[in-house]
Design goal:
single chain, 265 residues, alpha/beta, 6-stranded parallel beta sheet, two-stranded antiparallel sheet, globular
Length: 265
């Protein structure tokens, strides 16, 4: 009996450890859970905040190639679950038939869905435009990413999971009015791809529900399975805050509906 692999891709300002409760939950259900970080990612968020090294050099093209290689490395095509820019990558990969199914949670916009049409929260903090890293203070993190949790929870999440964002990557995503990278695309018309689930938090200030709904609408001409789930009263932190289990269990249920089991012959 073969176990189905699941690859989790984290987003901007969060460390790969942000998936630790998800990985445990999916493993408990029998899946093979993998949480590979970005190239050069330190073992802990604090380490990366203190010694970022070449973290600021990461761009969208490097991330796309990094995760495409990982997903292709499995004998059995994995499920891809991505948050924020990870959701963009998940859509791109499933759109070119890499992976068995994809879940894009509060995904960064693809194609002609413009970043600056979303919210001022998407704009990079003003640090002079010269630092290769864009860091969030604990206050900024709670204001923009974790705006539905209390101060104590936001502080705990910040300490364990928050890291600087590469300015190069934010530029590639079209922040601050920059020209978006040509890699920020998904083949929304592919009828032969695996199933895709888009998830939004209706109180998300970073990637608002309206942006995720626009992405869902863009897939309207494809006959491939595309579903949308909106979570009320949830922010961009919906994968790490105390309501994460509700989202994770919804994804597990959706995979089951698609006929994707943890153990398959």
């Amino acid at each position: 009996m073969n176990r189905t692999p699941v690859v989790f891709i984290h987003g901007v300002w969060l460390h790969a450890l942000s998936w630790e409760p998800w990985a445990e939950r999916f493993a408990d259900r029998g899946f093979l859970a993998f949480t590979p970080g970005w190239p050069g990612e330190a073992a802990a968020a604090r380490d990366l905040r203190e010694k970022p090294g070449s973290w600021g050099d990461i761009g969208l093209d490097a991330l796309m190639e990094h995760y495409a290689d990982i997903v292709r490395s499995f004998d059995r095509a994995p499920v891809i679950i991505g948050h924020s820019v990870g959701g963009l990558i998940a859509q791109h990969l499933i759109g070119v038939n890499i992976g068995r199914a994809a879940v894009a949670i509060a995904p960064a916009p693809v194609n002609d869905i413009l970043m600056h049409d979303a919210t001022p929260g998407l704009r990079m903090p003003d640090q002079g435009g010269v630092d290769p890293l864009v860091s969030l203070s604990p206050e900024q993190f709670r204001e923009v990413l974790a705006n539905t949790v209390d101060a104590a929870e936001a502080a705990c999440l910040f300490e364990r999971y928050v890291v600087p964002a590469p300015r190069r990557l934010l530029t590639d995503l079209g922040c601050a009015g920059a020209v978006r990278s040509p890699h920020a695309v998904a083949d929304v018309g592919n009828t032969g791809r695996g199933p895709l689930l888009l998830i939004s938090g209706q109180e998300d200030l970073l990637v608002p529900d309206s942006v995720t709904r626009a992405a869902y609408k863009a897939y309207g001409d494809s006959t491939a399975t595309t579903d949308l789930k909106q979570f009320a009263d949830r922010a961009h932190s919906l994968v790490v805050d105390d309501g994460w289990r509700l989202v994770a269990d919804y994804v597990l249920g959706w995979l089951d509906e698609q006929g994707i089991r943890a153990h398959e012959g």
